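INTERNAL AUDIT FORM
Audit reference: QA-55
Scope: verify that the stored structure record matches its stored sequence.
Auditor: D.O.
Record contents follow.
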Amino acid sequence: MKKLSLLFCVALAVWFASCKSTEQVAEEPAKTETVQEVKEETPAQEEAPVDNGDSMSAVESARKAALDAGAKDAYADAFAVNDAAFEALKALNDGKDHSKELAEIKARYDALAYAAKARKLKERIDNEGLAANSQADYDAGEKALSEFDAMVVVPVTPGAALNKKAKEAYDAYYAVFFKSYKKFAIDARKEAIAQKKAADAVKAQIARKEEYKSYANLILKGDQQFSTSNPEGALNSYKEAASSFEALAKDVAAKRAEAQKALDEAKAKVKASSDYAEKADVEKPLGDEPVAGIEAEDTVLLEKDEFENPDKEIIKIDENVQGAN
């Protein structure tokens, strides 16, 4: 770590010095008698101190993003060296323009953030066995990350080069993740649509209208997530919709079966009462007056579960989601 820090600081110092010498050469005016005369007549004015505040803030933001990505743990040595260089510049406070040096430090933080995120994606892909879904992308990510790991320990490697290589690794791994979850989401949506149809079949759109509507909205939410390149979010929404519709269809069907059973039992009792009344009437006529406790055969015991057109209440959802291909 000490050796790496020393090498980087020396390289950074040389790089800074080369920037300054280049600036001095570019800014040095041609020596002419006229200029000399002007200098003799006009006293030199001190340059106003340069405010590096915006550049400092940009580096602070990049550092926080790298911390949030886990770069301090994934690349502890490189992160510590970059921190040391940043702290040295902040302590310098010489009123000079250090935007180039700060841009270099920011590029390194950006690179560390991308590399740390790439490592997390790689770990997830490996744990979930996703590589086979896009093997070429996975192999490209492995190659780029390996190259970055070799580059980051070389102090003189420019931050821009590190950032480019780290982003290359991240993009490749993300392609594996995205393609995998896109496929999972499409399959989950098909299941959600199938379970919705099962709920439609038992008229859940009538029996439990609000629940039915909320579950249909889950599918629509998933479609919105899918169209905004969030396949993992879409997958979760579709899975929730599928399980909810499945439970709803089963519950409505069970309650409908219970109601039908009660209706059948009631009809059986009515028929038994009617048969008994007919037999009694033969043996001992009662006349046309109704008898308490004996229902007419055509008595409506339960309201019929009929609707003018329940299909009108079905929420229509396209079979295919936009962007599935």
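Auditor finding: record pair retrieved intact. Residues 1-7, 17-39, 291-295, 299-307 have pLDDT under 50 and may be disordered.
Action required: none
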